[in-house]
Amino acid sequence: MAQYFNAKRRSADWNYGGKNWKLSRSKIELFQQCPRCFYLDNVMGVTRPKTPSFTLNIAVDELLKKEFDIHRSKGSAHPLMKEYGIDAVPFQHKDMDLWRHNFTGIQYPHKATGFLITGAIDDVWVTPKGELMVVDYKATSKEGKIITLDDSDWHGQYKRQVEIYQWLLRQIGFKVSKIGYFVYVNGLADKKAFDAKLEFDITLVPLEGGDDAWIEPILLQIKECLDGSKLPASGKTCEYCAYMNKYREVLQEKAAPKPVKKKEEDPDIEASKQSLF
Length: 277
What we know:
Strand content: 15-25%
Distance between the termini: 71 Å
CATH architecture of the largest domain: Alpha-Beta Complex
Shape: globular
Structural class: alpha/beta
CATH class of the largest domain: Alpha Beta
Number of strands: 8
Number of domains: 2
Strand order of the largest sheet: 2-5-6-7-8
Radius of gyration: 27 Å
């Protein structure tokens, strides 16, 4: 079911050049998916239609944060970390709540572009050597045990997500591990009955990131795009632009004048006309 779409354009304060504008991790991902949608969003203030919020996923996210925060306050490892042999504990930091908040996140002023770059993380763990590990919570429901992201359509996007968080933490002065983790919560659909209870299988999926060399060039490309006066090309696989292009074609076909079709006369009438001469 589609979510109600507010057709009003966003206030200029929240567009590129406005006092509230920031370049978030999700906006960087949008640029990589489709420069045109990115430009329309950040310069023109016209966002893509939003999908409904996955409220069950949000609930799982909140519960996991509360659960790991209990161990954070004690300086102890979560049982899942012990199960997978992760020598670390949830990281304690005065700004942890800000780092996890969508409208603040980890923030870094990028001098080359003038952008304030942000990214809201789910969690950070720390090893005995003081090395930080980026952790993200994911929730889904699929068959089988989730032990890798190699077979996922989202692998590339998840990898970029972790690498941006790692890059942000490095920019503000932390030593960061190349290995990130996904706490993957998988809803089980093979039970005999629901019984007003949803059961989950929880796994810890490692992902080797650390390759943040792509980030600086992308930031410069984004700067060039935002400062340009022309609407950029669409992403090759952008479903939104493909829909709008097809919609435009149909409107043009409807608006085009139809050729006047010559009326055919009855053969008997035509023969009678000929007989008069």
